[in-house]
Target: Ubiquitin-protein ligase
Amino acid sequence: MDIKEGKFSITYLPERDDVVNKTNNYALIQLDGFLSYITCDSEATMDVWILEDFHGQVWSKKHTIVAELTHYVCPSKSTRPNERSMPEIGKLVAVGGARNGEVLILKHQKNSKQYLYYTKSRVLGDYWYTMSPNESKCCRSLIPDVLSNLPDNVIDVILMCLPCKDAVRTSILSKKWRYKWCRRTEFTLDKSHWVTKNDLLHPTIKFKKIICQFLTLHEGPITKFTLDIVNLENSPEIDNFIYFLSRNGIQHLVLHLSFDNPYKLPSSVFTCSQLRHLSLHNCSIHHSSAFKGFNRLISLELCEVIISSELLESLIYHCPLLEQLMLVILENLDTIEINVPTLRTLDFTGYISSICLKNSPRLVKLSLEGRYMEVEDLDFAKVFESCSALEHLLFDFSNFELYSEDEEDDRILECLELQRFSDVTFNHLREVKLKCFGGTTPEMQLIKLLLAKSPVLVRMLIDRWFLEHGSLDTRLRILNETQVPRISIQHAVDPAEHSRVSDEPPCFPEDSVISFS
Model:
């Protein structure tokens, strides 16, 4: 009967040389999820068939039990002499299976004695256990061990939801759970693994012990790994473990390291061909001859890293599917060119002369906080022309060289003339944030440019902490006189009032807001 369809159907037994009749010894049982037909053709052989295709009625012979090839495990000496020899195969009937079909449970026709037959080793042994009436009663009343009987896929899901430290502790639940954590594919090592009430060991020593366990016990791939450690000394174990990850299918790698000196990234990182997310903090990156490109990488974060302009440019260029790029560079860099057609977000903070954006038709979010970045070198016209899909824009004026001894610097104003942007229109730009606004003429020119070229702009947030008291109203009145009928100005926070209660600058968006109806 097909339980799913709720109907009976005819199953034809496998074709054999003789006809199955009442004298034949045969049985139908379930074996490893298949309907199994087991028959004895003689006193010394038994055939095991399985129905591989129910709808096509395809049978195949899985195993043949031959008495001469079977090793019989003799029962204990207390057994009667006539039971110490192997029973006749022809007098055994199959009643079930175990271990995914590797074990057959057989029963003798006369004395109902049960045997276990191991198909791989061809061993036949007694299945014999006696218990007292009290034990039998207790056994019937026991509740099944739910945790031990969970399917492997359910156990894997549970382990993935637990913190790494708790997942390892599940080994004490039962024998089935022991070392199941070794198949886990995602791990996070942070201070929670060695910061305890009684810190007797240095974090480096604890880290070495944990890594040793990983290398010894773990099975299968590790797709995501995060290492976030402070006060850890530079040690070869980190290099060895990264090499281990590179050979085990790592796809998401995060290294947040806090050394006195930046951690020198090993060349094995550049051989991780399956990487999709890479985040590096406080690392020193050098050229590797093994690097052929990250063809699957979609997210790259380089924070407080030491890297040359040439290597950074090459690294970005060899990520053809890159969508998210975050750069926090502490070293002085020259101009870098970013040419990634798939890029959607770019967040840059650091010391750099200029960034050249080319071919970025999908870029929707741009944030630039470049220290010592020259406006005339940035070339706003080329940047905006290559970012036709831009929706969110952030500039930090405190880091731009928009300031000059001569506020009317012709070089800066020339970069922001509307005539240079005749072919540029921000058809998707909805939000602009201007941090550390000082109210200089070039800054006002940039605001006018954005207002004139952004037909769907919803709001412009201006951080006026560095603006002289009273100057903002004058500047914004100039904007009111521009040909932007949708404009309305709101003041969210008075910087003078804020300074009386706090020495810190106000939170960025809580400043002057230019909204559009």
Summary: The radius of gyration is 37 Å.
